[in-house]
Amino acid sequence: MQERSKVMFLPGETLKERLKKAAHVTPSAEQMRWMDKELTIFLHFGMNTFNGRQWGNGTETLSDYTPTALEPEQWVRVCAEAGFKHIISTLKHHDGFCLWDTDSTDFSVKNTAYPMDVAQELSAACRKYDVGFGVYLSPWDMHQREAGIWPTERYNDLFLQQLEELLTHYGPVEELWFDGACGDHPIWQKVPCYQTDQWYERIHRLQPSAVYRMYDPYFFTDEEGWKQLQEGKGQIKWSGKAVRWVGNEEGRSRADEWSVQPVSERMIAQNAVWPDLGDIKYYEHAVGAVWYPVEVNTTILNQWFWNPETSKVKSLDRLIDTYYQSVGNNGVLLLNLSPDRTGRIPKDQVHRLMELRQFMDATFCRNLAEDACVTVMQSGKAEDAGVILTEDQDEFWEARSDWDLEKDTISFEIILPEKREFDQVMVREHVQEGQRVAEWSFSVWEEGAYHEVVRKGAVGRKSIRRFQRVCTDKVLLTIHKSFDAPQISGFGLYLTQKPESEEQEQVMDLSALVAAELPDDAVTGVSYRLFRGGRQSAAQIDPDVEKHEESGHLPRLDPELLDRRSDYHAEFTGWLEVLESGTYRFELSSVDGAMLCLAGRLCVDNDEPHAWRGVSRTLRLDQGYYPYRLLYTSFRGEAAFALDPDADCADPEKKRVRVL
Ligand code: FUL
């Protein structure tokens, strides 16, 4: 089979012709190998681990870096034991501190009291455990900015030097990660000194089997070239080795994740966050299409770097959900672990990761349709299609070659030897020859008729959909729409098997901290301080050190103060009154980071940039008054937050906890 990671369209072609062409775009061997890994580990460790920040500023001193028992081999062991296939570690984050023996700068581990070359240890351990070695190298470099080198041309040379060192000194590299974040420059715009073509050229030459998460702005061609492409002349620039950022960091993906992406813009930039990216409508004006598979990167903690005060491990349910949003939605999961100040991944993260492993093992160990009979109706004839139950990805069932996008549909009837219980269905396309299915459904036979329980768009390499548990011996998979003859290479039915996990939401007991009476100097209403410049994390605000731009008093806790502006952070302080002793669920919702402290203790942590999201925590409180402090940062979104201190009580009049 010929590999074709891009295809060009001609101006007069109809939409149908374009879609048919797009159906034959295929992954490169490198992309296919990467997609088959399914599970990969991200790892954030560096200066920030020691100074309690999420973004350093490049002025850290080498003596801040003080691991006590740094052991990259433990990172790899954890990764291998959990069945993850490669590990991408932050060898340089935005602060510019290098965790390998680099000749490019003095700001590296080499000059610290703990001079271990992390890249060296990590890559050696990766070879030992047969785990891939990956590199996160931040283009944005605040240390070099302080030194006056970023963002001049000299910086690109320095960056190339760093990249070459990492590509040549440590054996095979599986994946490189070029973060688009840059607090000094508008997001989605290329920093002019970055010569990204040179970066990619080095990878192609020095590590030809590596894939890379491209730096966000990527140009398919120049302005002139774009005009030509629109006239049907020339080729877009595409190596077939890139992987696509899903567009958020919360472990969510779109309803439909298309590995084939129509090229409807000269540049890839903020389209990473379009909710309908890859939709048919973009083919109307596209000049071509490329294979650009999705990577879902998210954290096991509520933040990237470990922090003794603010980080907490996500619930197993959230991680399970992320699994379905990534591996179960035609993507690869890149899950971040955060070593602590010893330099090892702490037990609570390892424990949660292993719970996720147990969940995957127990749920997917047996395909409940493995011994079923599968028949498909084609041209009025029933045909055996049992091949879709084999585990071999290279075997598949293919519809007739004269498939018509508008007219043809196809149904597989799957008959089990007896009634079985299940609550999820898995479908797989033979993506080695393209991603084609655009609409499918799944129905179960109950009480003498088929009932549809899933209806969805794209399938891709693997699509797993969950529904209410059913018990039946007959199901139907229907392909309603496909850009060309569908090729189905896998089908499965599974039943969720969740290990007993510790209580998801632990009650935090603050009753001992109560201030029974409101102190004389307490005032009702809210005091605030506003600081310019949103931060990636609300935990980064240090109101006592930083200079505020505005301060004052408000009659109530009012997010309108922020006037929906982004790029602000704020501190609000005041008093809460608990009318009755009891347990209360506090819910803190926000766009971007928010944290609530009561009586000096961090209680609800909804930190990090994100779209509108609520986080809750159940607290035991005695009757009385509690001082609160709410930190908020608006980083990329439009400022908005809301605090509900008695979220289980819907009637505002009856709430037993009040913000004064
Ligand atoms: C973001 C960065 O700013 C975070 O610190 C983290 O490295 C994440 C993977 O990407 O854009």
Task: Give a short synopsis of this structure.
The chain is α/β, with parallel strands linked by helices and 660 residues long.
Structure report:
It is built from eleven helices and 32 strands. The strands form six sheets. Strands 2-3-4-5-6-8-12-13 form an eight-stranded parallel beta barrel, surrounded by five helices. Strands 14, 15, 16, 17, 18, 19, 20 and 21 form an eight-stranded antiparallel sheet that branches. With 660 residues, the protein is α/β, with parallel strands linked by helices. Helix 8 (196-206) links the parallel strand 5 and strand 6 (211-213). The mean pLDDT is 93. It is globular. Helix 4 runs parallel beside helix 5 (118-129) and helix 7 packs parallel to helix 8. It has three domains: 6-364, Glycosidases (TIM Barrel, Alpha-Beta Barrel), CATH 3.20.20; 373-494, Sandwich (Jelly Rolls); 507-659, Jelly Rolls. Bound molecules: beta-L-fucopyranose (FUL). The site of beta-L-fucopyranose has 6 residues, from loops.
Overall number of domains = 3
CATH class of the largest domain: Alpha Beta
CATH architecture assignment name of the largest domain: Alpha-Beta Barrel
CATH superfamily of the largest domain, please? Glycosidases
Mean pLDDT: 93
Q: How would you sum up the major sheet? A: 8 strands, parallel, barrel
Please state roughly what percent of the residues sit in beta strands, choosing from under 5%, 5-15%, 15-25%, 25-35%, 35-45% or over 45%.
Answer: 25-35%
Quaternary status of these chains? single chain
The value of Rg in angstroms is 27 Å
Question: What structural class do you assign from the helix and strand content?
Answer: alpha/beta
CATH domain fold name of the largest domain: TIM Barrel
Categorize the overall geometry. Answer: globular
The side-by-side strand order for the widest beta sheet comes to 2-3-4-5-6-8-12-13
Give the beta-strand count. 32
Count every helix, treating DSSP H or I runs of 4 or more residues as helices.
11
The small-molecule ligands in this entry are: beta-L-fucopyranose
Amino- and carboxy-terminal Cα gap: 69 Å
Helix content: 10-25%
